[in-house]
Structures are given as structure tokens and as C-alpha cells.
Design a protein that fits this description.
The protein has 250 residues and is of the alpha/beta class. The chain has 8 helices and 7 strands, in the order H-E-H-E-H-E-E-H-E-H-H-E-H-H-E. The protein has one domain: Rossmann fold (3-Layer(aba) Sandwich). The chain is globular.
Length: 250
């Protein structure tokens, strides 16, 4: 199932991303959020998206081949940012990202460094997942619970912060920005706007094997269990919370 990214688009628009703005996106991956940003700023705006992985950038370039207002740069948000030096004379209006801060060892320090390329009064907006208060459900759904547990344990093994959503406001403030607002929405399985847990397990399978959380056969067996569990129309299963926080550069 392909995400429609409706929640992310709404988060960005409500935070103030719009036409004619210049946006710097970090950790763009395959370009899902880049596409949303490009459509929000329109042909009169610009998006510069960075990622440290050339493979991800290749996918993103292919996905957004028809967007003239988008440029991709290979750079590490937590490392070498010399690729952004040429933008010193034209600071950005927006600094944005999704599910990237949770993987940074010092997210506040990274955001503070990136502020060099943001104009005074510029917008900072980040969306992050939070697994600290889930799962939530009325009826027992053991396969779903095990899937969420494996995801949480894998993230921790990789050094990620599963509670980054709740930490967003404090992170923006520590980075030197003026915090404005935070909101959150539940990610409910089976509603058609997010990857179902079985697909997410498939995407994370190799990472789970490397982390020693599960075997490939174990992942496939759990995916099969998920296909037949909780299919009733009235079943509600909250697998994660999605937080978005925004602020401004003083």
C-alpha cells in the first residue's frame, strides 16, 4: 500500500509552507515529502532536498523528474554540509524534514547548524513518529502488538529515539528556535493512508535481522499472521503517533 501522505501535507500547510517559498529539506530519502513540499511551494518556489545516500537520491530524482523547482544535493545533515555553501547568499524560508531527527545522535545540534541557511524569521517544521504510548486497542491483537514491539526494538538497536515526537518542542528550543506549536495524530492500521504493519515489517526485515530482533522466516511468519488478524470493520489499532512541531528562527 502506498501512502497518500495526506497527514504530512496538512501538517506542512498548517505550519505555513506555501507558494514562492524556498525550502531546505533534510533526509529526503525517496522524495515523498519532497513531492509534497514542491506542490505546496508551486512553480514560483524552490525545494533543495538533501540526503547522504546516493541510492535514495536517485529514486527521488526519478520520482520528481517533472518538478523543475526541485534540486537534490548529496550531503549529511549530521556531517559534511559543504554542499550547501553555495546557498549562503540566498537563505531559505523553510527548514523541514520527516522522520529524520529520530535517527540523529544530537538532533538539536544538527538543527542549530542548519539554521545558518535559514533566514531570520524563517519556519522550522518537522514531523516525527512516536512509539512511546502505543499500541492502543480494545481487543487483543497479539500479532499486531508483536510487530510494534519488533519495530520499537529495532529502532532502539539502531540508536534511534522512538519517543522523538514528544521530544520535538524541546529539541527545537534547544536548537535555538522560537517554538510555536505542536500537534499529533494517531496512525490507525487499516485506514488506507499509511503502510499496514505487514508492509512495514517487510521494509524493515533486513534491519531486524541485522539487529538480532528476528529472522527473515520469523518476519514472514508474523506478516502472515497480520493478514488475518483484526480485519473486522470496527477494529481500531493505533500503531504509532505522528507528531509535528514548528517554530521560527529568531
Amino acid at each position: 500500500m502506498k501512502r497518500d501522505n495526506g497527514v504530512t501535507r496538512r501538517y506542512l500547510a498548517e505550519a505555513g509552507v506555501g507558494p514562492r517559498q524556498r525550502v531546505l529539506e533534510i533526509g529526503c530519502g525517496g522524495g515523498e515529502v519532497t513531492e509534497a513540499l514542491a506542490e505546496l511551494v508551486g512553480s514560483t518556489g524552490a525545494v533543495v532536498a538533501i540526503d547522504r545516500h546516493e541510492g535514495a537520491l536517485a529514486q527521488a530524482r526519478e520520482r520528481l523528474a517533472g518538478y523543475a523547482q526541485v534540486e537534490f544535493v548529496c550531503a549529511d545533515a549530521a556531517g559534511d554540509l559543504s554542499g550547501l555553501d553555495r546557498f549562503d547568499a540566498a537563505p531559505f524560508d523553510v527548514l523541514a524534514g520527516r522522520r529524520v531527527l529520530m535517527y540523529l545522535r544530537e538532533p538539536a545540534a544538527v538543527l542549530g547548524r542548519l539554521g545558518r541557511w535559514l533566514r531570520s524569521g524563517g519556519l522550522v517544521v518537522f514531523e516525527e513518529s512516536d512509539l512511546s504510548m502505543v499500541p492502543a486497542r480494545l481487543q487483543p491483537l497479539p500479532a499486531h502488538d508483536r510487530a510494534v514491539d519488533w519495530i520499537r526494538r529495532t529502532l532502539r538497536a539502531e540508536g534511534a529515539q522512538p519517543a522523538m515526537g514528544l521530544a520535538l518542542p524541546a529539541t527545537l528550543i534547544e536548537a535555538g528556535y522560537r517554538f510555536e506549536r505542536v500537534r499529533a495524530e494517531a496512525v490507525i492500521q487499516g485506514q488506507g493512508t499509511q503502510y499496514p504493519l505487514s508492509t512495514l515489517l517487510q521494509l524493515m526485515a533486513q534491519r531486524m535481522v541485522v539487529a538480532g530482533i528476528a529472522t527473515q522466516d520469523g518476519v514472514e511468519a508474523l506478516r502472515a499472521e497480520l493478514q488475518v488478524e483484526g480485519l473486522e470493520p470496527g477494529c481500531v489499532y493505533v500503531s504509532e503517533m505522528s507528531f509535528c512541531a514548528s517554530g521560527r528562527k529568531p
